[in-house]
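Predict the holo structure. Ligand: zinc ion.
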Amino acid sequence: MDVSEIIIPGDTPGIEWRLPVFRFKGDDPATPKVYIQAALHADEVPGTALLHFLCEKLRDAESTGSIAGDITIAPQANPIGAAQSHFGELQGRFDLGSRTNFNRDFPLISLRDRNSLIEDLDRYPATDQLKRQLMHVALGADLVLDLHCDDESLQYAYIDEAFWPEASDLAAALAMDAVLLSDGESSAFEEAIGFAWKYEVPGERHAHLPGKLSVTVELRGQRDVYPHMAKADAEGLWRFLAARGIIRDESISPSTFAGPAVPLDNIEMIRSPESGTVLFHCNIGEEVTEGDLLATIITRPGMAHGSIEIRAPQAGLIVTRTSDRLVRRRADLMKIACSQPSGIVRKAGTLED
Ligand SMILES: [Zn+2]
């Protein structure tokens, strides 16, 4: 295991961020190269725990000469976010200085301009330097996995339709409950990587990218960080890597994904029409039918008729749920994966800011 560091100078004196990157060299140059990062949203650490255990397995594989393709791993990809504590609470999603989401505003460039990402880096603030450095490393690979998690959530992934159904082996290996098929129309890390490949020849768009993969994996919820889950997920990624021939393990046979693969247009984003105290009637993993009572919101506590009911707009699988129990008006309460498009028109890109 080769260890290097991405070093990012802070925007104020006396600060320097150091981000370890681990490399396992493969012995077959024809085998796909892999890049895996976790905790780009710095408060989402199920992937960090997963990668801790995966690295242990990869060190063993290295000692027996079982690694065919190069594997690069950044288990804690965002030291800037990890250091942001605001009134005692970690703020890992948005950069406090610029209010930008750490997983948005990645540069949309062609693969052939990869090296421009790290030219004259001192022109950019620290968060942009971080994004450019991560993207530069990732674009050296063929398969890119960005490990996140949701709030209260099943195991699922955002996968650009350009990589589907080839990526169903990843969904099977990680025992995903659902796959959300995205349109590739955002500046999130995973979609910026896909963009660079799609426009490898500028002006010519490749709609399908065989042999490539760039996904956002949502490893359940933010508090689903336990040894058994992390080890099982590390085994899952190991199965994926073995099935793709990146590591040699004859005992692994490919499995098939039987869960739902749902376009983002078919996700019902359940929002609270008013502020109030949330009483959920349904949990993640439940299948609901149209009209089922999802939540009661107590909008005027103690008053007659002081609550409202939130009902399912159509049948589907509850994939995520907020952990907040006091919500603001328009707050996201749930994502429900459905077989029909939502009646609410979605703008292209990601489901959430
Ligand atoms: Zn995230």
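The longest helix spans residues 46-63. The pocket of zinc ion is lined by residues 41, 44, 103, 148 (CB under 6 Å).
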